[in-house]
Amino acid sequence: MPVRSLGDRRPRIDATAYVADGAQIIGAVVLGAGTSVWFNAVLRGDTEPISIGPGSNVQDGAILHADPGFPCTVGASVVTGHGAILHGCQIGDDCLIGMGSVILNGAKIGSGSIVAAGAVVPEAKEFPPRSLIMGVPAKIVREITAQEFERTAAGARHYQERARIYRTELGFDDRPLAPSGTD
Questions:
Q1: How far apart, in whole angstroms, are the C-alpha atoms of residue 135 and residue 67?
Q2: For residues 95 and 136, what is the distance between their CA atoms, to the nearest angstrom?
Q3: pLDDT tens digits for range 93-138
Q4: Burial profile 50-87: b = 16 or more Cβ within 10 angstroms, e = fewer
Q5: What is the arithmetic mean of pLDDT over 52-63?
Q6: Rounded CA separation 49/156 (Å)
Q7: Distance from C-alpha of 46 to C-alpha of 117, rounded to nearest angstrom
Q8: Are 173 and 68 in contact (CB under 8 A)?
């Protein structure tokens, strides 16, 4: 679980965060309380800061980066799906960012929104809260339902619980576990 500073850009990781093996945390990256970064995700804060709000998760293979002038900010209780790319964008609280979606520089996703799997959000595009966002290029399809909002919240809670289990059983670092049946 490499966590690396780059020059004067240093990661700040809350003591309650979980970072899985193979994840890369580089430079000015802030992980809030109860966050989790899963296997082979890359958060590279080498040009601008990356901030992940409390209770959020960045799933396996996701990439977060930023260009000069475009920090990457992820709110609280956000679910960032497997293989998603967040590049210099702002994600509000309680959002679901679908697997394989791409959100580009300057884009803003309103709180409580869902970005569908595979969607591509163009640069500087802004979406209001509670939007269901789909397509290439991404467009609002409709407002999300109460059930969809709750499903997103349940997904965030699920990953918070998974992180607690992994942190307890596997630890925060790369120490190997003893073989079964030994002390």
A1: 24
A2: 19
A3: 999 999 999 999 999 999 999 999 999 999 999 999 999 999 999 9
A4: bbbbbbbbbbbbbbbbbeeebbbbbbbbbbbbbbbbbb
A5: 99
A6: 23
A7: 27
A8: no
User: Has residue 162 got a pLDDT over 80?
Assistant: yes
User: Rounded distance, CA 75 to CA 89, Å?
Assistant: 11
What does the domain layout of the chain look like in residue ranges? 3-170
- Does residue 49 have a cis peptide bond before it, meaning omega lies within 30 degrees of 0? no
d(CA 178, CA 98): 36
Question: Looking at domain 3-170, does it have CATH number 2.160.10.10?
Answer: yes
Whole-number Cα distances in Å, 178 to 116, 146, 181 = 41, 45, 8
Map residue 120 onto helix, strand or coil.
Answer: strand
Identify the pLDDT of residue 167: 87
Taking 80 as the threshold, does the pLDDT of residue 180 lie above it? Answer: no
pTM of the predicted model, to two decimals? 0.91
Strand 12-13, strand 24-31: pairing? parallel
Spatial distance between the Cα atoms of 177 and 169, rounded to a whole number of angstroms: 9
Query: Token pair of 59, please?
Result: 């799933």
Q: Which two tokens stand for residue 13?
A: 């990781």
pLDDT, average across residues 81-91: 99
